[in-house]
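sry for the spam today, last one i promise. struct tokens for design, 339 residues
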């Protein structure tokens, strides 16, 4: 909610709460005030008053909560995620208390309770699955606010996690690379139960990327490999070396350091009409397209300046086919023309 709407909500909620407290006779002023005949609706008004007061208190506490944790938690998204979890626990306690208050702690018949529960589960199975999904993603920390994720072919930056769905600011889609599309996508939390969840930034902001360059068989492949490595070194060489320890500290096992690429690396494979060179490197996920573009620019410049290498591309060459009979026939034609 925007700052203006939030201010209006706080003021109006405060006025409503005070008005209800006075109207219900819960607070007496030193001078007489009119008391509305609300005796028949005391229970419902009390429930409404508690809910509204809880919302009002939560809105007032939210900025204080943020200020208190700003020094301990550097990421704003983590603070909001923690506040959201605390707010859910508070609301759960409030609603349980209201249910206890409205039923006056009476014991409900077990059979009736079972039938009602079965009916509710059947009707609310999708919302319940979303609730279970929320519990799974919070307990297992599949993702949190501020993470870049992909679920069910939707990629986005997580900006809100509610009990029923996850709201992301979409990137990719019809845009190339990781450019934001401007759309918001609400993903049901139940998807985490049966769909693959890809998290780009769970433990570190770095991800690996690969650029494939095809060169002709006639090219000097050692020179081409050196040019590729030089292009990568100019863009991501220092970045990879400076953050190697950060990336390595997130490995689950020390053996992974043997398999992971921690500096610009090039591998070669044969294709039908070219030699494919694969440049592998890592960079920040949110800047992957930028680093990829800068490396490609330098590769093109270096290849254009060195005649020993050439980029392979699909094309057709027409080679004349000649036989000995064709040459004899051509000589006979020329001789006949001279006569």
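last one done:
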């Amino acid at each position: 909610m925007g700052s203006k709407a939030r201010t209006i909500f706080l003021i109006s909620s405060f006025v409503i709460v005070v008005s209800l407290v006075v109207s219900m006779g819960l607070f007496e002023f030193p001078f007489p005030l009119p008391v509305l005949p609300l005796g028949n609706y005391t229970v419902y008004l009390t429930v409404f008053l508690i809910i509204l007061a809880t919302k009002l208190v939560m809105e007032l506490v939210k900025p204080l909560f943020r200020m208190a944790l700003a020094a301990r938690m550097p990421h704003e998204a983590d603070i909001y995620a923690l506040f959201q979890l605390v707010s859910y626990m508070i609301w759960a306690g409030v609603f349980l208390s209201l249910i206890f208050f409205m039923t006056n702690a009476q014991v409900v018949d077990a059979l009736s309770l079972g039938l009602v529960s079965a009916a509710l589960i059947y009707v609310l199975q999708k919302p319940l699955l979303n609730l279970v999904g929320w519990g799974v993603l919070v307990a297992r920390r599949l993702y949190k606010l501020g993470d870049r994720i992909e679920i069910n072919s939707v990629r986005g930056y997580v900006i809100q996690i509610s009990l029923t769905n996850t709201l992301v600011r979409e990137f990719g889609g019809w845009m190339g690379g990781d450019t934001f599309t401007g759309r918001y996508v609400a993903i049901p939390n139940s998807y985490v139960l049966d769909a693959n969840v890809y998290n780009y930034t769970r433990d570190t902001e770095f991800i690996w990327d690969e650029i494939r360059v095809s060169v002709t068989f006639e090219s000097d492949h050692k020179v081409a490999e050196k040019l590729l490595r030089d292009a990568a070194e100019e863009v991501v060489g220092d970045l990879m070396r400076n953050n190697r320890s950060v990336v390595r500290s997130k490995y689950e096992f020390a053996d992974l350091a043997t398999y992971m690429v921690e500096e610009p690396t090039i591998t070669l494979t044969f294709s039908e009409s070219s030699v494919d060179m694969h440049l592998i490197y890592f960079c920040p996920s949110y800047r992957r397209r930028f680093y990829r573009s800068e490396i490609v620019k330098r590769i093109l410049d270096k290849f254009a300046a060195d005649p020993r290498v050439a980029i392979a591309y699909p094309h057709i060459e027409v080679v004349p086919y000649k036989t000995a009979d064709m040459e004899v026939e051509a000589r006979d034609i020329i001789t006949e023309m001279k006569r």
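The chain has a mean pLDDT of 78. ok im logging off now
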